[in-house]
Amino acid sequence: MDPLVRFHNQHPPEAAGSLFEELLAGLAATPKHTSPKFFYDRRGSELFAAICEQPEYYLTRTEEAILRAAAADIAEMVGRDATLIELGSGASRKVRLLLEALHPVCYLGVDISRDFLLASTHRLAKDYPWLEVHAACADFTRPMAWPEGLAGERPVAFFPGSSIGNFTPEEAKGFLEGLATLLPAGGGLLIGVDLIKDRAILDAAYNDAAGVTAAFNLNLLERLRHEFEAEVEPQEFRHSAFYNEADSRIEMHLVSLRNQAIRVAGERVDFEEGETLHTESSYKYSIPGFRKLAGGAGFVPRAYWTDRHALFCIHYLEV
Length: 319
Ligand code: AVI
Known about the structure:
Elements: E1 5-9, H1 16-28, E2 32-33, H2 42-51, H3 58-78, E3 82-87, H4 94-102, E4 106-111, H5 114-127, E5 132-137, E6 154-159, H6 169-182, E7 188-194, H7 199-205, H8 212-227, E8 230-231, E9 237-244, E10 249-256, E11 260-264, E12 267-271, E13 276-283, H9 287-296, E14 300-306, E15 312-318
Parallel strand pairs: 1-5, 2-13, 3-4, 3-6, 4-5, 6-7
Antiparallel strand pairs: 7-15, 8-11, 9-10, 10-13, 11-12, 14-15
The structure holds N,N-dimethyl-L-histidine (AVI).
N,N-dimethyl-L-histidine is lined by residues 51, 59, 161-163, 165-166, 206, 213, 280, 282.
């Protein structure tokens, strides 16, 4: 065990069997759909990291710029006695900006990917020797409890990247309600949320010229081939992403280029030419719209910070 990091095991990773059943149910449904979690095998995670570097994908760099500019303000609101809890801790550079500004007594990284979590919390513990570092292997979309023995007075959760946008608004509300119940009175949530904006900017962000988002979307079919023994030819599908204004969401689809049957572990799935597999929705919120959603879930909106083009917003909410 890593002497620098206190490790807590909360949930074992989802069993392959239940993932498989969920996948088949989505492929058998009308319209066909899969959960965005299926994107993130090793290659998918690498492609997502590359998306964040694309000039059209403004989300990551804008959120970082907001954090940098607002760090002192955030530190003043959050205080210096916090336990910072990062949900989906990944390899994020963003939390480092917060650690440096807030100087919390304790950090807890929560992620379902054990290896990734151990590597990233180890790096943090080495780089910030003054910080008490904990790692919880958990699926934070399921009921969970904070581990015992965290130093600090006030837990403040950090959920960056507009990951909340990959939930439907109903799921987002349920997720926020769960967090509001888990946090004690005075606990907080710093959350990055992508804003509703001109559709040309949104469409470009999910159709980068280098084709990285297309590769990310099509990699789902590669994953089906390798992990789920699917008989499917990725070149028989194309990437499609567009802003659905009525539902305030980007939709990503894989469009079948012809009438074809694919097989997933022996189960036949028919596609007509032009029929799509809906692989992801990425919801966008106005500032008042998100404050209302959070308020309905038990949070009190305290502050928010945005950039001068109003592309992205970081909200600070308390219970
Ligand atoms: C992780 N999530 C917030 C990204 C998004 O923008 O919805 C995933 C993504 N899909 C395509 N590009 C990026």
